[in-house]
Amino acid sequence: MGFFLETFLGGLMTGLLYALIGLGFVLIFKASGVFNFAQGAMVLVAALAMARFSGWATEALGSMVLGNVLAFLMSVAFMIAVAIVIERLVLRHLVNQELTTLLMATLGITYVLDGLGQMVFGSSVYTIDVGMPKEPLFLFEGVFEGGMLINPDDLIAAGVAATLVATLALLFQYTKVGRALRAVADDHQAAQSVGIPLGRIWVVVWAVAGIVALVAGIVWGSKLGVQFSLSTVALRALPVVILGGLTSVPGAIIGGLIIGVGEKVSEVYLGPFVGGGIEVWFAYVLALVFLLFRPEGLFGEKHIDRV
Fold first, then answer.
1. 137-139 and 148-150 beta bridge pairing
2. Bridge partners of residue 270, in order along the sequence
3. How far apart are CA 129 and CA 136, in angstroms?
4. Model-level pTM?
5. Burial class of residue 303, CB neighbours in 10 A (0-12, 13-18, 19+)
6. Residue 299 in 3-state DSSP?
7. What percent of the residues of the chain are helix, what percent strand, and what percent coil, each to the nearest 5?
8. Can you tell me the distance from the alpha carbon of 245 to that of 239, in angstroms, rounded to the nearest whole number?
9. Are the beta carbons of 284 and 228 closer than 8 angstroms?
10. In this model, does residue 10 exceed pLDDT 60?
């Protein structure tokens, strides 16, 4: 029982990290109706910025805590600047264009961000040390034989992810900006006709997606190191948004948790019978099943075409 709960909790924590990255896809899709292929590159660039700014700030201030705080603020400012540049140079010129055009634009933004990250911050492998404890904890030793092994950095990362997810859900449901984002997603021209500034809304949503990417980059970078393969982490979030629904913030959470738990449990309990490797393809098979039988996802909006 203890081992099962340990595996289950590990899957939940991994799922929350998947949900963090999936949120970036949902945010952009809700505001523009287009799937943002640049989300993985945004995670990479944000993590690179945090890693380099942290090193410079810590050396200048002589304190890791103050250095990390300053580096985080600088990284937030950097991602907001990236959002403004994207809106001014790309999105502003594509208002009311076909969704295919916007989709191809996000592909171009991906390669630009990859090149920008390497040019500005270098191509070495960096580490992010935000002071999270690394020593594992043994809990409930008196309840289960051997107790439960929990990584404290996973607990902290899960708490941060849950807080951010809850904040974004409240932002979309109960604020004026959230209502404007939903209006822009439904119809660009109609939103503009009632006075909603499309350019400003796109800057806001790309900036928020950049901050989400920064948090995800810090968490994944502290666990795996900051390297250019980090941009492929976003591929693990694709099944999350397919499962939860491209338009649903709560769907990204539920989808991430289901996939995180499913990966861990299936790998541990079914892997030995099939030779292992289930964790690699489990999420994509589950996403394929949903595309066949419920393409809008668990919480996505159904599209009904009337003729």
1. antiparallel
2. none
3. 17
4. 0.84
5. exposed
6. coil
7. 75, 5, 20
8. 10
9. no
10. yes
